User: Fold these one by one.
Assistant:
Number 1:
Amino acid sequence: MLNFESVSRVYDDGTKAVNNVSLHIKAGEFCVLLGPSGAGKSTLMNMVNGVVEPSSGSINIGDLVLTKQNKSKIQRRIGMIHQQLHLVPRLSVLHNVLAGLLPNVGLLRSLLKSFSSEDQRRACQLLDEVGMEEKHLLRRASDLSGGQQQRVAIARAFIPNPEVVLADEPVASLDPAMSRSVLQSLKTAAQHRGATVICTLHQLDYALEFADRIIALRKGEIFFDGHPSKLDKITQDELYALAQSQPVSLEQEAA
Amino acid sequence: MNSQSEQPRHWREWELHRAVTSKNLVILFFVFIVLSFSAHNTELDKAAVETSKAVLSVVGVGESQVLDGAARFVGKAFPIQISERTPVNRLNEFDRNNLPLFSYIESGEEKDYDALTDTWTVESTEFLVQPIGYLKKVIIKMWETIEMGFWGTIICIMISLPLGILASKNYTPHRFVYSFTRVWLSFHRSLPELIVALILVLMYGFGPIAGVLALAIHTSGVLGKFFADEIENAPPGPQLALSSTGASSFKVLRYAVFPHVYPAWIAYVQYIFERNIRTATVLGIVGAGGIGMELKGRWDVFDYDHVATILLIIFLTVILLEVISQKLRKHAL
């Protein structure tokens, strides 16, 4: 489904953010990327999204190889949940979700904010699925709590029926109970649609609880890849230590 | 190196801050000279002299040109004129038995000036007096002025919205278009309404069209630049999120930028509207329609009592406008 073939990325300042990574991710898998800041998680995600280009190696989704030319084609098959969410604060919850459909909506319809009732129903269904209630539908996104905003962001990522959803630290700013519930919503929404999820996390506990597959990175290289149950005690401790550790230097942070 | 090797001084010997230094005094002296020249150029010295004379004259010492001027206006301005008095023989369709509401007929003398023989003829005639006739006329003119301001603002938005988008760095189709529209907008800004109105009166003739277009041209330069700056300063996050789904830049503009800049735009359009009405009141002086035309006409024939009515209505309108837009602003945000 999503394949990385010996992908590397070297930044202009010489930092090797990702070093010779090969990955084969099956359709419908819930993958969690683990690793300290600067391990290359964000770079890996941004390469799938077309924001960062690999220095060498190739990435393909299904039969589509990621190149500059078909970047927009790829983008339409990917949903993205950003760490800072990037909802439009003054837009209603409904329209924030529908904004995910913009590439497929006609110019006049999008200008007048007149989405078909079919599209609106889909947005409602998704919002219900991620645990939002009807009373929030027409509220401004800025009036919502952090957890609710996160759910709206998930709904927006899923509404164009993407094959792959990239979630960058989706629970970074939430308390543990809310984090679990949001991750559960994310997982359910993905399962219902058979979408592949790649999600970066800082907390090993959540990864163990939700992931179908854990991919741990260290200094741009994979040092664990497999089902959470295969994670032995030693690797677990090592992962805990990594998750606790602070970024070693500013360059690594930037990477 | 040097400073390290020196012995630190005792705090009693530390150099203290001095507010008045010889350098400051020299600078002040030169500033004073330059400002004095400039003040003389703008006749500020004369203003000081004349104002002092006026003050002295009030307490009974000497005479004042300033006070005379004021007295000439005030003496004729009050009581203000709100009725309309027309000689009956000048009315085309006059029906003695069917007078307009509240009006009555009054007999009096009409003075007529004959420029050829330089003589005044006085004949007694009847006048139709409409008690609030002139006030009504001024209010209708004021309404026309408000309409001028309104349409000036609408046309201004129609010009400045597309130009504003083209002149914003992140949504302009090309760097060249960006620079061109920026220059174009500042060109619009640099044209004062009165001068544009003068030219437009030549082109379109006397009347409100010239005023409306003059307002639109000047204020579109102001509003367009503001639109563009607001678009440039919109938070990049939501724009990135939407454009990464593959949405075109027009749609990103519509969904991630417009909702954000909307309140600021509304507030600014409101300000432009208010300002346009205030400006529209004077545009009539060059013949571009509105209440200014009436004002200029009455001023030129020294009908200061009529002028006083016009000024009162303008004053009341501006206050009313301010109150309404304050309320609206609270409502919109």
Number 2:
Amino acid sequence: MPDQEKERLQERERVATPTDHSEIVPGRLPAISEDESKHFYGEPLVGFDPHEITGTLIVIEGMDGSGRSTQISLLQEWLESEGFAVQTSGLRRSTLVGRDIDELLAKNAVTRLTLALMYCTDFFDQLEHRIVPALKSGTIVLADRYIFTLIARSVVRGINRDYLSGLYAMALRPHLTFWLNVRPETAFGREFRKAQAISYWEAGRDMSLSHDLYWSFIRYQTMIKREFEAFAKRHDFLELDGEAPVSTVNKLLRQRIAEQLGIRSTKYTPSSALAHLWR
Amino acid sequence: MPNRAYPGALIVVEGTDGSGKSTQLYLLKRWLEIGGYRLHFTEWNSSPLVKSATRRGKQRRLLTPPTFSLLHAADFADRCERQIMPLLQGDYLVLADRYIYTAFARDGARGCPEKWLRNLYRFAPVPDITFYFRAPLDVAVHRILSGRPKLKYYEAGMDLGLSYDRPESFRLFQARIMDGYDKMVESDNFVVLDGTLPVNKLQKQMREIAASKIDLKRFAPRAAEAE
């Protein structure tokens, strides 16, 4: 027991970021010992009955260039071929504020706290209008990023961890959370090839980390990665090597998901429409 | 993000719709403005940032208790980071028509957990004075209903499903909000004022309390200081 405590403190030292001096243990979300804790991180969502959930919420997390979207496209095809209804969600896709956030980012005329709250609004709008109704109807929801990315991005910008955890206390706990872990250097190459450029926000240029685009990207993504390492331990992330071939990562994902859904078949070859992803 | 030390001062008015708070804050502002005081006036829900989202949310009835609350918090955070905090740091007297207690009372009435709401607004500076204008429910409801042809959906709290009748729903919603305010009187040091008093009497009280709690001279023009 004392050893465990020591380990915990050491871990806390290691992942502490210079921007946050709070006493909060990284990666921890408020826990409530009641029944809700199975479904939520803190208080339950207003007017929500957890017993109505018959679907499965699967989250894929990972930095830009970790291969999330590729894997989600492939998983959706596989699950549909197995006869499951699938819905996807992702950041900035809400009807309520998705477009507004795009505009704010384009104009770069927003403070970090306001942006964090707009993202939080976007998250809960999708949670209540898309994710929860889908889960109630037995659908599998594949979430391209979740609260972890949102919290990590704000924490590295100096917003208090405890504050952010409190904001997302009403978020639904996923059934499975996968983390596609890649080195920032690899992610840089992949992102650059995609658009022949690196965007302002991907490189964390608002944080004045470096005048150099490459180093700004590496430093920013390393900070985010450190937050993910802390989350991974506390929230049972299933960590996968995002630098492995697409087909290898996909096979591991299918195996774990099949186990969760109680199905035996994990055979899959992408259709011609998605064959180009199967590098 | 915690409250930093700043030289300015913050005066807030709170109360249900029809409690007379806006009129009173306007008169306090006029009194100070005429005296040449350094001040800034701010209102709840006034920035263009979330206007389109709020309009879309209301028209299409997309807003749920958490998103309704978060959208207002985003709007307030913008005002707080761009206006309220910089002005307090720059030694201004800031007058706010409604503040975070509006969110606590209204969103609490909609069912948002208090703990969640309190955390959401943790970044807000604590007011130097919070005037709470209290008027009996019937008086407040009458003032609103007589001056407005039709109550809007969210304004009447129709999303709570309390009643199909809008005026009745409004009444029940306002009663819940008033309960929320009453609960904060002690915990948040509200100065309670009787909203049924004549306007000029109420204003006299407000000015006296403001002058006794805040060193208003600090915000007066330089010439007055030299006297």
Number 3:
Amino acid sequence: MNLDPYLPLAIVLSSALPGVLIFLLGEESHWRRTLLNMFGALLKIVLVGWMIWGVFHGHVYESRLTLMPGLELVLSADALSVLFVALSTVLWLVTTIYAIGYLEHSPNRSRFFGFFSLCVSATVGIALAGNLMTFVVFYEILTLATYPLVAHRGTPDADHGAKVYLAYTMSGGVLLFVGAVWLQTLVGQLAFTQGGLLGAAPEALHGQFIVIFFLLLAGLGVKAALVPLHGWLPQAMVAPAPVSALLHAVAVVKAGAFGIVRVVYDVYGVEFAHDLGLLTVLGVLAATTIIYGSIKALSQDGLKKRLAYSTVSQVSYIALGASVLGPIATIGGLVHLVHQGIMKITLFFCAGNYAETLGVHKVSEMNGVGQRMPWTTLAFTVGALGMIGIPPVAGFVTKWYLGLGAASAGAYWVIGVLLVSSLLNAAYFLPILYRAWFRPPPEHWPKEHVLSKRLETAPSLLWPPVVTALLAVVAGLLAAAPFSPLEWATLIAEREYGR
Amino acid sequence: MSGLLLAVVLAPLLFAPLAVHPALRWLVLIAPLPALAALALLPPDATLELPWLLLGTALGFDETTRVFLLFTALVWSLAAVSVVERLGTAPGTGRFRLLFLLALAGNLWLILAREPVGFYVGFALMGLAAYGLILHPGGLTRRRAGRVYLAMTLIGELSLFVALLLMARTQGVTWNLPETPTPDGAVITLLLLGFGIKAGLMPLHPWLPLAYGAAPAPAAAVLSGAMSKVALLGWLRLLPLGQVALPEWGMLFVWLGLVSLLVALGVGLVQTDPRRVLAYSSISKAGLFVLLLGLLLLEPALTPVGVGALTLYAAHHALVKSGLFLGLGLRDLDPARPLVRAGLILLALALAGAPLTSGALAKYVAKPVLVSPGWIWLDLALMLAAVAAALLMARFVWLIWPAPGVVETARSRTPVHDFQEPQTPIAPLPAFPIWSLAAWILLLGLVAGFPFVLGEPSAWPTNAGAMLVAGLIAAPLALAIRHRAPGSGRPARQRRLGDLAVLVEPILTAQLWAGRALFGRWNATVEAARAPLYGLGKRVGPPPPDPERTLRAWPTAGRLWLGVTLLLLLLVLITP
């Protein structure tokens, strides 16, 4: 019996079903909830591992559901989907462990984990989407599933942040939907094809294609936090740390960036987009976002706000990679999907640790935190150095490929953007490291909880950032080894450019 | 056996986190040993390919690298003795040892690297780790020195990054050093900028006097001895030497080198801190290196001689400079004071290039390149530089010589410092640090033996003329000033001459202030624009109470949702 058509569906359901079941559990059934979560996460890892092996050997996995003639929900796996799915799956497992520890003694945990699981299924659905309509459907499910997470705490700030989030993402969703439907009326059902399929369409439609691109970009740009659509991101920092980690590393922001990559490569085709002049616009937007995000991050004292603006800036590297024509820049942008995810999630985990263990929410309160929590601060240091682009952490590999791709394509201004943003990153990350490691700690921390007798904080809070920091270093050190993110991104680029 | 090459880099990396613990601080001593072992045991062309590491790494030797590795390992080993013994177990020394070993690992990696990415990784690691070395053990002066150092190092690293990117564009993603690449103006400029900052070429030098003045003795020794030579190695590897003559670039290098060579000597003569005198001496030597490189670019046929001369000069300078800094750190040892002073004078003579010293040998080997274009003005400038260098060293000796009539004890010696704040003592002085002294004497022996082992007798009398002239200028001056009774005359003013960073800082502060004002304005505008949008929500208000309220309760809604979804799924599955 051929199980191939059911694999993508199974991967989506492997977190959706536990999510639904968790809703039905009472608040007190702590063990059953943890069991369901871990079971779902581990099952997903096994299935995704199977899929990676299969895609590497050229198998085709496709689940198809005809809703009505002309509208099909298609879940299919190609090399690019697998990149995002693998990232989501691994980081979901780590974040689940972290969230279990973080929300210890918090109310409404069943509600939280239920929506958490739905959020991940929506992300995986986005990754595996085989055509634009499926993508849009799961994109909207993601919006709805993440709203309760942002509003989880129930405080007036949380409500406000969630409302802003919803306003931005729903407006974006509408634009995306209009764009997708318009495109479908012009060229029919749009499966994502490597190399894009709009290049073959008649010349008369090109004007409409350009407008549609802007609509799609606006819709995707909200989630991807392109300036000026990024306003929701710093406001959404009121969410608990696991949510910030998930939103900023895996689900929402990456979904937007992933969508942009899909549209440029698998709907329009990168050469066609270049001919229409769309890549230049994307490049300018991405560059503006990178610089603007970094400058805003300089002036933030709140740690999570600073990391939020850093995310705004860093995710646009992916768009920047997509906007330069040439395989090397493509590789740089794609591999940054993974690298930025791992590094940012480390930083947010550490921020959550500082908040939970010491009550430290601001950079100015972080004096001497390296003495009190050395492992967490070490993980933070690794993440920060990666963001700046210091080897051998993974961020260096991205910058190398982006820079090399830009030099090969003759787009030297991109190198300038990389330089300026590296300096700005150094300007807002290195002072944090200085404070943490070289200043003496204060007499009393703002609100210290002793969460563990032997370790600096609870194990479920300590291990996730250490593991992801290690992954960030390994992803950089072993970048040339088989099955590294870089090798996978190279595979995608090869298949995309048809070489 | 080539695995030993990997151990050279891996040993300090792995020992670094362990050496934080005070009981394990002896690991610092054995960390440079694999490097010396590799030099002794491995064949001269050993290589190790690691295609799975980073973007594909390779480590290996060649003639130049072996010499660099030798003197680098020596400098680090001897400084390590001081780190373990003198810095001891005071708070913050764990962090110092960690960064010391990380910087060592970076330094060794970049020397052994046979491709650009590995070189860059080592360079970045070394540069960043050294920041923490300058900062120890704290204080305003050191923080400022550290800030200037870090800012300039980052700019240097990014310049090197872009230079390597541009080179990789023509040669694919990775390539093997040191096949000299085709010359490209942008690349040469970036290399000049990036490595010039590291070497301390004027006008990229402001961080150097600050850092050398602030860092503790072992850190200053490795900074000046080993780390600044990295720039020379980078230039030797990456500049298009020995291929085609580049007249404009060659002249540019010559002029830049000459400016550094002469101006630094001048500025150094008026310093009041012996460490800053040494710093300016380093800057002037960096100028000499760039001058030699420029002459090689003008006359590619001289490249083998030139590269050999530069390497020898680098080895001599590394040993002598680090010896001087280590010696300055040993100045306050009671019974050994005259010995230390004598050793410092010997090293100063070597640095000035007195006959029979390593400096003279290095000058002798470099002579063919220096006289190659046959320009009179160059020869005159070099003669002037030789005299000035000797005078500079005389100034140095003057500064370390105790004032007449003052009895020195370990307590009464107030270290010379830049600001009026007392310099934080490095550690409560332990029992007599015999090992640091022994290591330093070993270094003296190496420096003394250098010319006799490596040079020919014809090299010995080099520079005799320059030294004579310098002596004739300096001796009467010294005697004249000495004759003033102790206590008369003005008290020595603390001077910060030549600190160019002072010029830049107000500009940066003004920029920061302007940026904040602008952004404050921008933020206010954005908030004002957003406020009506948020206000819209409030105006709509909550919906009126209605009978649908029970339907909106979660359990009802949830059950309805589940029920409807199941129904839809059933319908979809049943319909053909």
Number 4:
Amino acid sequence: MKLIETFRYEWRIQFRNLAAATVFLVFAGLLFYGGFAGKAELDERISIIEAHDVAVAESMETWLSDLRKLEQGDNTETLSPTTGSAMDVVFASSLPQEPLSDFAVGQSDLLPFVGEISIWEPDIRLFSKYEFADPVGLALGSFDISKAVILFLPLLLIVFCFDVISADRDSNRLGLTILQITNLRRLFWQRYLFRASVVLVFTLVSAFFVLVLNSGNHAFGDRLPVFGIWAFSVLFYGMFWSMLIALIASFNRSGEFNILTLLGLWVGLTLIIPAAGSSIAETLYPTPSRLAYLAEAREVENETRLREADVANEFMLDHPELLVNSDSEFPARVSSAFLVTSTVDEATRPIVAAFEGSLLERERVLSIFGYLSPAVGVHSALNEIAGNSSRRHQSYLRQARRFKADYALLVGPDVVAKQAISSEFFESLSQFQFMEDPLLGRLDQNIRPIIFLLSLSIGMLLLANQRLKAISPITY
Amino acid sequence: MNISIIKKEFMELMRDGRAISLSAIVGLLLVLALSTGLSNERTKEQRIFQAKMADAEAFNAQGEKNPHSAAHFSRMAHKPIAPLSSFDPGVSSFLGQVIWLEAHYRNPAMFRAAEDAPELSRLENFSLAGVLTLVIPLLIILLGYGSISGEKERGTLRQLIGSGTSLQTLLLGKFIVISATLFFVLLITVSFSIVTSIVLLDEAAPSMSDLLMRGASLLSSYGLYVLILTAITLLVSTLVSESKTALLILLAVWAITVVALPRLSASIAEQVYPSPHSHEFWEATDASLEANRPDGASADYAAVEQRVIERAIGRSLEEGEAENLSINARGVRFEVSEVIDSETYNIAFAELFENYAKQRNLRRLLSIFSPTIALQHLSQAFSGTDINAHEHFSNEAERQRNDIVRMLNEEMMLNGSGGTSRYLAPAEFWETVPEFQYRQPSIGSTWRQSFPDFFILLFWGWIGLVALFLLGRTRAEF
């Protein structure tokens, strides 16, 4: 039988029937719905960021106009006594949305991606007003195209490939088939590659349609290269599962055995290992208590207020150049709030560092699970590609806190000296810009497990090939 | 009913190597889920206890201070561990652990534990409830897919029917054996959870009888789930002629109803009833606060002012007495604004929770396609980790905020003469502010809210059994 005839035969038997069409339709529905849900979440994030930027810009415009009035001496009696205070300067901050953000919601529905930076707020309350998303949806995990692929692509491969030779075996015609052809291995791989390719091509083509349909927020040209990396990761994932299925199929057992074994592997590799891994890592490396962080912050706040005069003196000693404006109308609560917030931030910085340390340690443990299950590595890689990983969000929070600390350092002397800043100074202030790590650098952590599993896939392929050699019309 | 059929089925099950090894794996998973869940809950419990102590200490150590400044510092309301959160943590990790009871503002709960959880935990839930919901259907499928179709393939079904055993009796025997086996697994799991929860009982926890009732409710919900799945599995096995076909159909049903639909239903509910954006919610609330504040010279304002003063002095005011009272006017203004704003906040938060209720109702509607959705609702509700439980806590914390702020404002009103904010309350005053004594909602109120979900499961069970024993008997292919 020629190659093309084998493909035609496979197409007619395996794919041109109502059951197969239904399965593909359901899968396509899941992919498109995932794409649509991811796009809806992305649009929402973008609209939140835009609204936030507009609100902050408007409030700072009003603030600046008041400051100019103060500088020019216009209608100063209508101005607030805190006009021109550096304490009231607010900066917009947000995590830029990556070109392929709609492909994986990742942690973006849970972790902050937008927020005002103000030195009125201590670090602990900088992002405390989170979004009110449906908690049940959060608990179940947002549904997006990446999740649809991770969960259902292996199932589709199993459904179409598990009986590549067991169908002949179960209907007692394998012996006849082997006698009719010269090479069982060739027939196996021809059938197998055709079936797996149909599934993988269907997945990638559907994803490409989602890419095209969802374009709008980013130029298609910007999305395409990132989609290439996403598609490569999906291809790797599909290859791993294809080789695993081929290996089980090459054992030449009944279709029932194959499907039970593969289903067990799917449950284990896709659901149990990731869930157990994260649970074990959480138990072994718990983050420091946020409640203890809060308690510490409140204790320091209280102590600072009780010894406010001493704290102010210490600040003056650190800044001998300071000249307090005795004519200022700034209320004492402004400089007092600054001293309290700065002291609280400084005192709780080790706790924040401990948080980050434990998160890193946990990530390290979890990366080990990436060697045990392809879902772990691919899930993390797809979130990273979409720019919605936990790591990127943590980096944003870190940068926002650093920006606030730098600004506090810059304007602290003015605030304590009860002096207004000038409009020129305000205009010269740099705005918050998220410093992005390159995508390939971010993917670095996922590459080693992927290479390991790729090698494992090659090993499985060789083993499956070896096992196929052993099948003969007498021994099967 | 022929007891010998049950005996035979049970013996076959015991001899089936696959069943034994699968049960061992499931047992291992359950032990792992129970131990990690317990360890996490115990850590949380200790942290809450320490945080409460530290909070009380910080509040009481404020020294001489203006009561209004103290009302801004205020207290924290710590959310206690839910009665059976080691069994099903539900949505508690996604709703914050502590509420700042600050003057002027009703804050949402801060610090969602899920923000500190690994990214990977979003892929699947590894609690006892998560494992049971995911794995129990698989176990039932694996134990039951070949029950009738296997007999057909081997040709023993005709023989059994020919020997006088009715198909209905055979089905009932297999049904009892499979569901009883799984029910036994459930019984052990839920019992362990209850025992460990009793060990971890704190003062906010419900009574032991309440806990036992919760356990029984969980058992009945999961028990119904087992019955439904067993009925569906046996029905499919009866209707098709090959075990492989039965297995494929059942696995497709499992993938769709257990893995895909619960996720999809949550996603659809969020699309249909979108939760408000944080900035929109706060902007709208600020606008309502502004709109609902009556003019200082209006009769409405005067009525609230009179109520506030009468409450503070503990008696009714006589006509014209208010003007001559030696009372701090600033303190009165703070309390009046607190009373007016509190109503606006209550409405805003009630609307937020109402939106969550609409999302839950839509998911309920979608549970006609998947009993897993209704089961998840019930499991979270009986474990005390659903949104209703959080709403109860949030409302109780708001009541406590109103009480604390009122007490501090009244201290200023009655003892800070004149109209300034310069009054300093004595250092020992802070200890007179009462602690937040939170009692979690009872099982009775949980049942009232969860009955529709239970009814859906009952309906599924009824349909499943009717289909199995009527359709299975009449449409079975031999």
